[in-house]
């Protein structure tokens, strides 16, 4: 039986999402827990996508095939018993064996949080502690250039293989509250480091080092060397994964 | 010269505020940092009060006497260089030697945050993960009984010495947002575990196990055995310390 598992995690204690030998990853913790439930028979989970070291998720998905017969409710309960406290299963449902957690994704939404105010030790792993003022109005002007279909080659850190970098962004928004900036990006898919690289260039705009229109120029250039900034991982959250009905 | 130091900390990595041999405490980290600045001559910091293991502070104060000549701005900068990332100095100012961080306190404000919604791994050390619905209306009725001057003997965990337990609470309020309850308490002083014990009994009200009026009865009884519940530390924040002008 195939199950779709919705879960959240605190990325600060993991070396990343994907299994790596002898390292603590989200995937390996999930597989360890489900393998116990599956009478010790090894399972592999398939995620909607990876997140990098230090990145958090409030709503991430994997699908998994399990041999033992178990209800969705019991699978959720058992997983939360076996998982460490920094991963939590929110929901489990049975899906048919055509469903794939990665290939059936329609859209994803990410959030990035930056603190312009005083350093906050409580949020140090959960909000980028930038701790200086930024020109938020200019950043709001600049973020609009990301909307729509673009070749995001200039915003991908690893791009040796020249793969297809065309993606569509359907929401790109900045909100401000108590000297904290929240960036929201929704789109059909995101390349590795894309969100953190987009936030990085927006910070440069906020520092008045470049103009909002320069973001469009960099995007159009398709040249990664034009944009060398990557915002740190701790401010990034995978918020939503939207699947085909 | 005497300095008043305003600082914040993430309580989750400390055994508590007060120095204890061979254990990691907020006080000992502060004293280690200042001793380095004071040319290695040992200093003792005097706090507005202690917080217990796992409790956080967004605005806590100590005063300290330092022999070396240093401006407030430089002292702040030097401390933030030497302190670990889970303590942060917000502000330093020179005060006269009559000032005492504990004896000059007028009022303190605490906040307690409880999540009635789904377990959130990202907030597990920062918000009490109660994860069930509560009768918030009854809790709002009950919290009013704490307002004013009372003998809080029934809400103190350690009370062998029968010391004076009379305190005045000037603000006691509940707010609700996204299935998170925030309790705010402001008053002339708080006894050990008092806030967590008050929250504990309010949770019992929220569970419909007792009526709001029972909170008044327990308070009036001055009998600790009538109230055996203490809410966990991770939801508690010292928010403000207000000093005499």
Could you explain how this protein is built, in words?
The structure is a homodimer of 245-residue chains. By secondary structure, the first copy, chain A, is of the alpha+beta class. In chain A, 22% of the residues lie in helices and 30% in strands. Chain A has 2 domains: 2-95, Pseudouridine synthase I, catalytic domain, N-terminal subdomain (Alpha-Beta Plaits, 2-Layer Sandwich); 105-243, Alpha-Beta Plaits (2-Layer Sandwich). In chain A, strands 1, 2, 3, 4, 5, 6, 7, 8, 9 and 10 form a 10-stranded mixed β-sheet that branches. In chain A, β2 (46-47) and β3 form a beta hairpin. In chain A, α3 (136-143) packs across α4. The longest helix of chain A is centred in the C-terminal third of the chain and has 13 residues, at 194-206.
């Amino acid at each position: 039986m195939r199950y779709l598992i919705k879960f959240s995690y605190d990325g600060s204690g993991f070396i990343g999402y994907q299994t790596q030998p002898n390292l603590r990853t989200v995937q390996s913790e999930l597989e360890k827990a489900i393998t116990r439930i599956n009478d010790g028979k090894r399972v592999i989970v398939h995620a909607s996508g990876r997140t990098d070291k230090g990145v958090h998720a409030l709503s991430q998905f994997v699908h998994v095939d399990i041999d033992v017969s178990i209800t969705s409710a019991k699978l959720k309960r058992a997983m939360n018993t076996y998982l460490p406290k920094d991963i939590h299963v929110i929901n489990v449902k049975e899906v048919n064996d055509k469903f794939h957690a990665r290939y059936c994704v329609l859209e994803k939404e990410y959030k990035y949080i930056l603190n312009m105010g005083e350093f906050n030790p409580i949020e140090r792993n959960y909000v980028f502690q930038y701790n200086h003022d930024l020109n938020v109005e200019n950043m709001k002007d600049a973020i609009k250039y990301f909307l729509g279909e673009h070749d995001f080659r200039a915003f991908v850190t690893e791009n040796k293989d020249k793969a297809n970098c065309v993606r569509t962004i359907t929401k790109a928004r900045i909100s401000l509250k108590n000297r904290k900036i929240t960036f929201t990006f929704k789109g059909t898919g995101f390349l590795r480091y894309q969100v953190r690289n987009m936030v990085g260039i927006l910070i440069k705009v906020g520092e008045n080092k470049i103009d909002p229109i320069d973001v469009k120029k960099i995007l159009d250039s398709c040249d990664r060397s034009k944009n060398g900034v990557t915002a740190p991982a701790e401010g990034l959250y995978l918020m939503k994964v939207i699947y085909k009905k």
